[in-house]
Amino acid sequence: MDPLFAKLDLKTSCRALADLLMPRLCVVCGQVLNLREDYICMGCEMDFPYTHFWESTHNAMADEFNARILVPDGVHERYCYAAALFFYNSQSGYKNIPRQLKYNFKTAQGRLFARRLGDALAGAEHFLDVDAVVPVPLHWTRRWKRGYNQAEVIAEEVAAALGAPLRADFLKKPRRRSSQVAADAQSRASNISGAFKANVPEGVRHILIVDDTFTTGSTLAACYAALRECVPCQVRISVATLAFVKNN
Ligand SMILES: [Zn+2]
């Protein structure tokens, strides 16, 4: 037996053997992972682009989101809290984290990063009174095809970390619209506006809407608008995502 294998326990030996047959790769840079690394290599871990948005009630994402939900007739909305775990731009390998969760069925990997988001939010005082975690819904045909809703995978981990119930029943997406991927900001916003329907029981005080990525904020704003239609302004609505897209 290889002396390296002789020193390893059974679980690690199995992983070593599996790695020989099919090496595991870093989600960010694609480099082969060593035995102690899970999903991300040490170098990419060291450079992990945390936003630290959860540390402050006012941040770039919250400002952007609040600008989106401003009501034109002058009705004052409460300033919404918003946070994402990490930044990425189009050149960054970190974009693979939400992408592989959404398109490549990498739910275990997605959960690892979703737990980090949950732990970060649980450490922030302004998210501690969240009493409903609501994933951005998919139209049922899309969910059926993919087998899961990526936003719900993230929301499950966030809800567990916050000790708050997951309420996937608060929001539905009854209308199916064309894919958002290629649309520009303006057509994304009109494409998604009015796509969601909400149903919230009485007694909820702080709703947290969860999605995979904040790009223009149009999807979250449409969810916000649907929820706001059925809850009074005293009910706080916040948003959280795994990633925040930086355009530079
Ligand atoms: Zn890496």
Structural class: alpha/beta
The rounded distance between the terminal residues' Cα atoms is 52 Å
Mean pLDDT: 88
Strand percentage lies at: 5-15%
Q: What small molecules accompany the polymer chains?
A: zinc ion
What integer value in Å does the Rg equal? 20 Å
Low-confidence parts:
none
The H-and-E topology, N to C, reads as HHHHEHHEHHEHEEHE
Biggest β-sheet strands, sense, barrel: 4 strands, parallel
Strand order of the largest sheet: 1-6-5-2
Q: Can you tell me about this structure?
A:
The chain has 248 residues and is of the alpha/beta class. Helix content is 38%, strand content 14%. Helix 10 links the parallel strand 5 and strand 6 (236-245). A four-stranded parallel β-sheet has the order 1-6-5-2, sandwiched between helices. It contains ten helices and six strands, in the order ααααβααβααβαββαβ. Helix 5 crosses helix 6 (107-122). The longest helix is centred in the middle third of the chain and has 16 residues, at 107-122. The mean pLDDT is 88. The chain has helices at 3-6, 10-21, 42-46, 60-68, 96-103, 107-122, 140-146, 150-162, 185-192, 218-230; strands spanning 82-88, 132-135, 171-172, 197-198, 206-214, 236-245. It is globular and about 65 Å long. The structure holds zinc ion. Zinc ion binds at residues 26, 28-29, 31, 40-41, 43-44.
